[in-house]
Design goal:
Elements (H helix, E strand, L loop, with lengths): L1 E4 L6 E2 L14 E2 L7 E6 L4 E6 L6 E11 L5 E11 L10 E3 L8 E12 L2 E14 L2 E14 L5 E6 L3 E6 L5 E6 L4 E6 L5 E14 L3 E12 L5 E12 L5 E12 L3 E13 L5 E15 L1
Parallel strand pairs: 7-8
Antiparallel strand pairs: 1-17, 2-3, 4-5, 4-13, 5-6, 6-7, 8-9, 9-10, 10-11, 11-12, 11-13, 14-15, 14-21, 15-16, 16-17, 16-21, 18-19, 19-20, 20-21
């Protein structure tokens, strides 16, 4: 067990029209529909997914977990499904990427905008997603900027920026699954070619902390055995992971799931325990068992 944490449809056309007497009818196979679900990760080892229309002419939605570093030392996070739209909807404050046409070349570059509610402060989100889809593979970049403003005065408090994130994703029916947790965080699950193991599962999760605070994580777990009927389950510990000041963080996970050829679902629970240099617990952040669903 290893863990790493980061803060056809096929139709047949039979017969030959106008065949000469005695000619043998040959079955003609219609080309398989192009893939519509791509899943993978970013260079931050966090989940990344793309959904494409059935005709491969439009991008439908982006699933992204990305963080932007702020001058104050805090972090702004976007962890959600973001729709692509031909133009900016009227009166919408939800995060949306403007532009959705996918050229025949597979290359695209679009900008997005939206807001994040931080209570007394509001985050004004600006993002750029670019890439290229070629058959069953896709890769590109993602940039995020979040302007933090005082909600009452409208004055800018600080501007947070991500590094340019590089992402890679693949499509494989029955092996790559992309979806969301119950709290609308992205999840990507990848099976090995023989479907006997969960090779990787990337997911975003949020946990309330004690004595205070909130933890938002883009996580990566790997290597779960899958039973013949498609079930997997495991509880395990990971860490501790040390920090430069001597503090450390340890994690406990309890993961359950089931996979079929077209979908996957399950639950995940997680707890993070932080200790100081002397070993005293300073914070505990817990995610109760949360459901997730994904499609291939």
């Amino acid at each position: 067990m290893s863990s790493r944490t980061t803060l056809t449809f096929v139709a047949l056309v039979l017969g030959v029209t106008g065949a000469a007497p005695g000619a043998t009818a040959v079955a003609k196979r219609r080309p398989a529909a192009p893939p519509t679900i791509y899943g993978g990760s970013t260079s931050d080892d966090a989940p990344f997914g793309l959904q494409v229309s059935k005709d491969h002419r439009h991008l439908v939605r982006l699933l992204i977990h990305a963080r932007a570093s702020c001058p104050s030392g805090s972090t702004a996070v976007v962890s959600e499904a973001v729709p692509f739209a031909a133009k900016l909807p009227k009166f919408s404050q939800a995060n949306v990427i403007i532009g959705n046409r996918l050229p025949a070349s597979g290359k695209f570059s679009f900008h997005g905008a939206g807001t994040q509610d931080y209570g007394a402060r509001t985050g004004l989100v600006a993002e750029t997603v670019a890439g290229r889809i070629r058959g069953a593979t896709a890769k590109g970049t993602f940039d995020l900027t979040v302007q933090i403003v005082d909600t009452d005065s409208g004055q800018t408090v600080e501007t947070c920026r991500s590094d340019t994130l590089h992402w890679k994703a693949r499509a494989a029916k029955g092996r790559i699954f992309v979806g969301l947790t119950a709290s609308r965080r992205p999840v990507v699950l990848a099976l090995t070619p023989d479907r006997l193991q969960v090779a990787d599962i990337w997911f975003g999760w949020t946990a309330a902390c004690q004595p205070d605070g909130l933890l938002i994580v883009g996580d990566h777990l790997s290597h779960f055995s899958v039973s013949p009927d498609g079930q997997f389950a495991e509880a395990f510990d990971a860490g501790p992971y040390g920090n430069s000041d001597g503090s450390s963080a340890s994690f406990h996970y309890d993961v359950h799931g089931a996979v079929s050829r077209s979908s996957a679902s399950g639950t995940v629970a997680a707890t993070m325990t932080q200790t100081d240099a002397g070993g005293t617990t300073t914070a505990t952040c817990a995610l109760p068992a949360e459901r997730w669903k994904a499609a291939s």
